[in-house]
Amino acid sequence: MHFHLLLNPALVLGTIIVYFVAKFVVHLISSHRALRHVPGPRPSSFLWGDEWLLYHSTPGVHYLRWHRQYGKVLRFTGALGHQVLSITDPKAIKYILGEAIFDFPKPKGVRAWFKATLGEGILWVEGKDAHERQRRVLAPALSQSSVRNLVPIFYETSAKVASQWTKLIDDSHSDEAEIEVTRWAGRFALDTVGRAAFSYDFDCLSGVPHALAESLDGLTNNENKLSSFYMRALFWFFPSILSIGEKGEMIRKSKLELGIIASDVWRDAQVAGDVDGKDLMSIMLRAEANSTHKMSETELVAQMRTTISAAYETVSAIIAWTLYELALDLRLQSELREEVTAALGDPSYDDLNSNLPLLDATVREVLRLHPPILENHHEARETICVPLSEPIAGTTDTHLVIPKGTILEIPVNVVQTDPNVWGPDAEIFRPERWLERKKRGIRHEREILAFSEGPRSCIGKAFALCEVKALTITLLRHFDFSCPYEIEAFQSFVVRPRIKGQGPSSLPLIVRKI
């Protein structure tokens, strides 16, 4: 009797496992057949495909090599043999990110990651109606007109960074000190989004350990462990892997920490009841009171988690790479300092975008060569035909049929270093190219994909660019910097700098008071 009671659940479990394995194998076989005409590299590992190669190499280097060899559309192999399409064809990109964006949702594994870390916010949600509903709530607070009013806050938090750096130099009893820039970049980003979006001071710039900052650092800033590789390789088709082991515990801890802070901020805002303000919190309060666009507290907290995390990850990476490039090029650093010092007072929103051409060119060049998000991932919701600007290599096909469930990616670094667009020096950091292009009236449709494009492009672009520029101006007016270490890029959630051969992000600069 007991044997049969145990046997039946075992049979049920075995049947379920066999079903999913069979379904996975059928999908592999059908996708191999459907994409066999698409060229690409032979997998470097039978078990892991090219995932091990990609994970343990300089971010994006193999995408550059593969696309030079196989053209604008290629396929490579992921873990357990699943096929991934890599696409840099401009017509296909415009179609995928534009008119057909809702036919190409985020892959299930990516959505599982966002749900596990942030909740069901705008980065997780799919479907045109659901996405537009959430975007309507968030977009007004991050629009250009709203960011215009937030610029003074960007300068205030920038001044806090400068004050702390001055203190560190004074404490060294010298006119210079070695300062770990990535740490301060992350804390600046958190304090800025806290004050500007939620009228809330996270107090990350006091120089002491901070629970939220440490939690976010621990989650995405130390990706050299085997457990991180296994999770990255397998979560595309086994999203449940995000909930197990040490990494799963870190994900839960980060989500909890963000959730506690977001809930506290939301409750304080409800008590204050400021529905007339222009920041994100006031707009969310108005939406919460509006029966048409009403969101639950769970959704609101998810949006706040998403805003905080996105601001921390991308902005901190952009700041670090900006200061790194300036530390390498002392001529550029000097010329840029002259430009920002000549501007009287704190440049306004219009000045940041129109009247500081070298600053704008420098930040654009950082985004071009150091995009925070290396790959723009999608999945075919149904079998779909995508137009191409030129035939697939070795064929006459100017359309690509992508089978349902196929994961595809747009490697941003390949698009943004295309020598046909940027010239033979496309892989060299040279901000002057933007001034030259403007003088000649050159503008391509997809100059920068770092914030994506189309209906699902990043709504925080104007916010991010202005705060990066405000901090750069402030630091250049007070300090000069140089880099005594060999720095390499590594990929965690975003692409970060680190001392070559080390684990977590690190960018120690020699900072000297002017």
From TrEMBL:
Binding-site positions, heme: C458
Location of the protein in the cell: Membrane
Annotated PROSITE patterns: CYTOCHROME_P450
Keyword Ligase carried by entry: no
Alphabetized InterPro entries for the sequence: Cyt_P450, Cyt_P450_CS, Cyt_P450_E_grp-IV, Cyt_P450_sf, Cytochrome_P450_monoxygenase
GO terms of molecular function: heme binding; iron ion binding; monooxygenase activity; oxidoreductase activity, acting on paired donors, with incorporation or reduction of molecular oxygen
Pfam families reported in the protein's UniProt record: p450 (PF00067)
GO CC term (a single one): membrane
Protein name, entry field: Cytochrome P450
Source organism: Rhodocollybia butyracea
